[in-house]
Amino acid sequence: MKLANLEVAGEKFVAVVDAEKSVYWPVQALVPQFRGDMVQLVQQFGQFKGDLAPRGEGQPLAEAKILAPIERPLRNIFCVGKNYHEHAAEFQNSGFDSSAQNGEHAPEAPVLFTKPASTIIGPGVKIPRHTAVTSQLDYEAELGVVIGKAGRGIKKSDAMDYVFGYTVINDFTARDLQKLHRQWFLGKSLDGFCPMGPYLVTADEVDGQNIDVKCWVNGELRQNSNTSKLIFDIPTLIETLSAGVELQPGDVIATGTPAGVGIGFNPPRFLQKGDVIRIEIQNVGVLENEVGE
Ligand code: ZN
Questions:
Q1: How many Å lie between the centroid of ligand 1 and the Cα of residue 57?
Q2: For a FRET experiment, which of 123, 126, 152, 243 has its CA 20 to 30 Å from that of 159?
Q3: Cα–ligand 1 centroid distance for 186 (angstroms)
Q4: Contact 156, 239 (CB under 8 A)
Q5: Distance 83 CA to ligand 1 centre (A)
Q6: pLDDT tens, the chain, 293 aa long
């Protein structure tokens, strides 16, 4: 099932979407007692699941604005750095990685950081350039994992039971700030630096551990990999995080980006105003954003 966070005539609501037919059904039309946002839908999904089967023709999706599927997570987005071998190598070689030890090829444990909710923007929204603080903008195509139920001390073998679904994330980054401040938080956290969407696709429709992740900049293919190449796979990430942090329904984990980011080139190819980043994750969706003012 594909879920979306929509806006029509100034009103925001969650909906079930048929992307092929380009129609939607407001969740509230299917489950009249539901009055919540996407995080609340994820929390209560077990109760309503059976009632969410679309009935009737649906409304045309073209008349709705698609927002980020989770606009207001309960806390920061969990993110993973250097989680594909070739990207870990390009980052190490770029000179922009102030966190790496000399000669390091891959981290010995997941590299975790977060982005605040204020970074989240929807598909098609222009990404602010923040020219007063950065001149080195870069893209990172990533599979986003959305947690479906609370859990602490989750074992790898059970971890996939905690995955509600998937979305597409652009872990947008100011490389100069990432390098200058050593901790990655600031360079990853400027307002608007987390394009997300268009859909939240439930886990039964996607094999999140084996799907293609691709990214184009102005039509040029830059990133092309598969989540089976993650250094730390989704179960390992869930086990690691949940060992001491109770995961909550609606939590989002950005799983890391493959090789082919701007700093992987020599000289680096930073983004400029008007550049269009298109990320496609197999069976999950296509997320496109332009670099704005
Ligand atoms: Zn990233």
A1: 39
A2: 123
A3: 13
A4: yes
A5: 9
A6: 999 999 999 999 999 999 999 999 999 999 999 999 999 999 999 998 889 999 999 999 999 999 999 998 999 999 999 999 998 888 888 988 887 776 677 899 999 999 999 999 999 999 999 999 999 999 999 999 999 999 999 999 999 999 999 999 999 999 999 999 999 999 999 999 999 999 999 999 999 999 999 999 999 999 999 999 999 999 999 999 999 999 999 999 999 999 999 999 999 999 999 999 999 999 999 999 999 99
pTM summary value: 0.97
Between the CA of 7 and the centroid of ligand 1 the distance, in Å, is 28
Q: Where does residue 272 rank: exposed (0-12), middle (13-18), buried (19+ CB within 10 A)?
A: exposed
Structural tokens at position 161: 């039971």
Give the C-alpha separation, 118 to 105, whole Å: 32
CA of 44 to the centre of ligand 1 (A): 29
Q: Please give the structure tokens belonging to residue 177.
A: 């700030």
Residue 121 sits in the same domain as residue 228? yes
Ligand 1 center to 9 CA (angstroms): 34
> What's the gap in Å between 112 CA and the centre of ligand 1?
10
For ligand 1, the distance from its centroid to the CA atom of residue 257, given in whole angstroms, is: 5
> 37 and 110, same structural domain?
no
Q: Among 41, 67, 93, give the residue marking a domain's end.
A: 67
